[in-house]
C-alpha cells in the first residue's frame, strides 16, 4: 500500500499529464500531484526523455529497466518492460538486465549502456575507460540524453520505492 493517498484532480497540470499519457493518470502521477509544480516539471522532463530524444528507444528502455533492477523498483520495471518490447528488445535481452542475467545476448552498444547505467547508479562517478568506450558508440547528444535518462529514472525509481507507489 502506498505511503500517501493518491491524488485525482481535474487541474491543468493533471490534464497535461493525461494528454501525454493517452488520457489516463498512473499511480505515479497520482502521487506526484500532491505537488502540482513538481508534477508539471516531472511531466515535461519525462515527456522529453520518452518522446523528443535521438537516443534509440531500445537503449533508452535498457537503461530504464536496469535502473529499476538495481534500485528494486518493480513498479518501474512492470511499467517499462512492455515499452522495451515495443522498442524492439527481445525477451532474452530484457532478462539479461536482471542480476545474474546472460549478457551475451546484448550487442556492444547495449553492453556499453548497461555498464554506464551500472556505474552511474551504483557509484555515480564514471571511470574514464568506460566513458571512452561510450564515446566509441555514441555522439555527444546521445551521451547527454543517456546520462539524463539514467539520472531521471534513478529519481523515478527512488521516488517509487520510498513512497511505495503501486504497491
Automatic annotation (TrEMBL):
Domain Carboxymuconolactone decarboxylase-like: 36-118
Molecular function terms from GO: peroxiredoxin activity
Keyword Transferase: no
This protein's UniProt keywords: Oxidoreductase, Peroxidase
Top-rank taxon: Bacteria
InterPro entries assigned to the protein according to its UniProt record, in alphabetical order: AhpD-like, CMD-like
Keyword Iron part of the UniProt annotation: no
Protein name in the entry: AhpD family alkylhydroperoxidase
